Amino acid sequence: MTELFGIPMPVLSGQILLGLFNGAFYALLSLGLAVIFGLLRVINFAHGALYMMGAFIAFLLGQWLGLPFWALLVVAPVLVGVFAVAMEKLLLRHVYGLDPLYGLLLTFGVALVIEGMAQYMFGVAGKPFSQPQALSGVSMIGGMILPHYRVFVIVVALITCLGTWALIERTRLGAFLRAATENRPLVEAFGVNVPVLLTATYAFGALLAGFAGVMGAPVFQVSAFMGSNLIIIVFAVVVIGGMGSIGGAIASGFLLGLCEGLTKVVYPEAANIVVFAIMAVVLFFRPSGLFGKAA
Amino acid sequence: MTEPILQIENLHGWYDESHVLHGVTLEARRGETVALIGRNGAGKTSTLRAAMNLLGRREGSIRVNGRETIGMPRHKVAYTGLGYVPEERGIFASLSVQENLMLLPSIGENGMSVARIYEIFPNLRERRRAAAGTLSGGEQQMLAMARVLRTGPQLLLLDEPTEGLAPVIVKAIGSLLAQLKADGMTMLLVEQNFHFARRLADRFYLIENGRITDHFDREGLEAHADRVADVVGV
């Protein structure tokens, strides 16, 4: 059996794949957080709950209406987005311009309410959610085991991230968003409907979280706290990438997933803390993050 | 007589708790260039910001093209025909020059074409792909003016367009504004540089402590020379 640094290749490639798979979720979630923070200056603590909401909506719609996975992948994130529109218009709007702490506390409160409701309705045990039939197999390529569903998630997440990056960096709509990130009142005075832009941005970030939730449902357990387990790592990823940097959020999401995967091979005991260790080191040498601009 | 394109009446304005405008009244008629002259902190910039709904609280009346803009949502004010060139220039540093130029929604029909803009400002054409934050102060000022001219405004609000710029650039901006004026553009010009303003303006308002304390036209300039010297401190 081939080895690299004394590690069997199948083990190494398996962990690289798993790392990229986890990284796909980190990237989708930290991207949403970065976009929301960039424009709204709100640290969205409800992000994990919105992710969980995507998974639960998919679970329920699958049960009630028997919708196929592909339909759920579209419908559930859109419903999360609709919820986010209401949340932004009714609650979040009132904390703009205040100390960021208010937004953080508000979204944290909303997250507790959403998670509490999910726990009340579904209990603490995880709900089963099956993979789509078409993606349930495995392939062997050059000694590498490739579970189809995981490869699918990595590819779709990568396309979604790059599409979002292009939308923000390469279109006029994205230019409004970037300009408003720099100077919101002025963009508004020039005739851009910034309140709508804020609502749309929050909804879009939430939609990405809901989308990640649906993709996570078949692999992670669908449970009330699936988001809160993940979001702590995602916040570390955002801090490492640099708050408000779109490309940074994507790159550091995948990179840290990969680091975690490789740590599992080399020293499994450290796998759970490696992201936080990296965060500490990055914060020490580059307080504004790897890709962030110095404030 | 037709209604002035801009009519500000008894305008009061506040930044947070501090009351900065105490009943400003002024007007600009179509095709006119009006200069607002005063010391730092007299309320010149605040008057322009109030016109764009960028001040905190406002009371009184600001009519543009006959439409009351007090109480109008901020993102609708520009569509009354206002082109705003802020004092700090307000260039979006992380956007490219071209993106800055194309960013603002059109508000009127007679916007300047991009080709014409690049003809007037060849520097901007050369640097159109550069991040706008890397432009020199003069180029940023050019960009701040170019991007509002593209939107087709009927009234330009110019806040210190020559501040901190080299004489050669001040001269270029002067001849651009003179050309716009000749083409019939209405302008409200805030200036510390009185020598710059006197060459362009048809009428002058003196502002002190958030109040208009005097106004006169070009012919009245000599008679008011002492007052002007007193207000601008020259």
Could you tell me how far the N terminus lies from the C terminus of chain B, measured between alpha carbons in angstroms?
Answer: 37 Å
Mean pLDDT of chain A: 91
* Second-tier CATH architecture of the largest domain in chain B: 3-Layer(aba) Sandwich
Q: Provide the structure class of chain B.
A: alpha/beta
List segments of chain A where confidence is low: pLDDT < 50 over at least 5 consecutive residues: none
Shape of chain A: globular
Number of domains of chain B: 2
Care to count the β-strands of chain B? 10
What CATH calls the topology of the largest domain in chain B is Rossmann fold
CATH superfamily of the largest domain in chain B: P-loop containing nucleotide triphosphate hydrolases
- Listing every helix as H and every strand as E from the N terminus to the C terminus, the arrangement of chain A reads EEHHHHEEHHHHHHH
Largest sheet of chain A: 2 strands, antiparallel
Write down the CATH class of chain A: Mainly Alpha
Instruction: Find the count of extended strands of chain A (DSSP E, 2+ residues).
Output: 4
Overall radius of gyration of chain B: 17 Å
Protein name (chain B): Branched-chain amino acid transport system ATP-binding protein
Family (chain B): Belongs to the ABC transporter superfamily.
GO molecular function, one term (chain B): ATP binding
Keywords (chain B): Amino-acid transport, ATP-binding, Nucleotide-binding, Transport
